[in-house]
Amino acid sequence: MSAPYLPAGWTPEQLRRATPADFASLSPEEFERVSQSINEQFNEKTPAQRKAEMHASRLAKQNALREREGMPHLPPAAADPATEGVVEAKTKSQLVDVVERNGWQSDFGFVLFRTDYTDEDAWERFEEVFNKLVDESVAAEVQGAERNWVEEGVMVKMVVDDALDGAQVGDVAGSFHAVKEAGEVPPGLDMPMCLMVDSASLASINDTNTVPFLLAVDVHYDPDHGSQDVCEDGHFKVAISSLMPDLYPSLASGAFTSARLKPFAKPVFTNAYGL
């Protein structure tokens, strides 16, 4: 297996434990080389290796938080053939960390816009799956005493208005600002990206070839005026189960723009670590 690309001055250990802020410190060119290298490494591995590294990456992020707070690192778990020595970490997650640092005890999450109104049954099924996956992902991400208040605090404001039927990405970005100006977007939902459910999103919950997803839309997207911080076409696909554990902390921390996150959507974003 080829060795991963390391930015100048980085060690393999630094890359393994890198946080969103670490990646954000790289130049766009270095960031692209790192993300491409990580994805190439990931694709060369077996499913078991991928699962093990996903757990190891999460542990590294949690230990980085513990180190910053003056706490000792979590010790390695006993070797287990099923997990290849993966440690099951139970400490503050990146979601809890970013929410606490912003002082949000409730109403943190996203604003979501429905843009397909052709099949009410499909929408109801999507809502059911969406809520289930969000709840399960938060429960898996947050351990201990924080779980109850985090689960109660997560909020996804769904904007359902048939005037949005067939709306495009630019329309959704504009709609977000309209809702915000109406005073209906709490600080914890005022993210640089909102969510969009189109026909492909509705279909994804029954598609065995992909994970259930929807679109993350940059609220600053203007099809007539580009920006280096706004990703191409103003959107990318994101797995529903990755919204709160991965996309939200990346955005709420201010460490990532949509332009820096989109390279990890290949074709669906799951996290900003290439795993």
Structural commentary:
Mean pLDDT is 82; it is low at 77-91. The chain is of the alpha/beta class. It has helices at residues 12-16, 20-24, 28-44, 47-68, 94-102, 120-141, 146-153, 169-181, 199-204, 243-252, 258-261; strands at 108-114, 154-159, 193-197, 213-218, 235-239, 268-269. It is globular, with a radius of gyration of 19 Å. The longest helix has 22 residues, at 47-68. It has 11 helices and 6 strands. Strands 2-1-3-4-5-6 form a 6-stranded mixed sheet.
Largest sheet: spatial strand order: 2-1-3-4-5-6
How many helices?
11
Which regions are unreliable across 5 or more consecutive residues at pLDDT < 50?
77-91
- Cα distance spanning the termini: 16 Å
Describe this protein with a few key phrases.
275 residues, alpha/beta, six-stranded mixed β-sheet, 11 helices, 44% helix
Give the topology, please.
Layout (H helix, E strand, L loop, with lengths): L11 H5 L3 H5 L3 H17 L2 H22 L25 H9 L5 E7 L5 H22 L4 H8 E6 L9 H13 L11 E5 L1 H6 L8 E6 L16 E5 L3 H10 L5 H4 L6 E2 L6
Parallel strand pairs: 1-2, 1-3, 5-6
Antiparallel strand pairs: 3-4, 4-5
Helix pairs in contact: 5-10
Summarize the structure.
By secondary structure, the protein is α/β, with parallel strands linked by helices. The protein contains 11 helices and 6 strands.
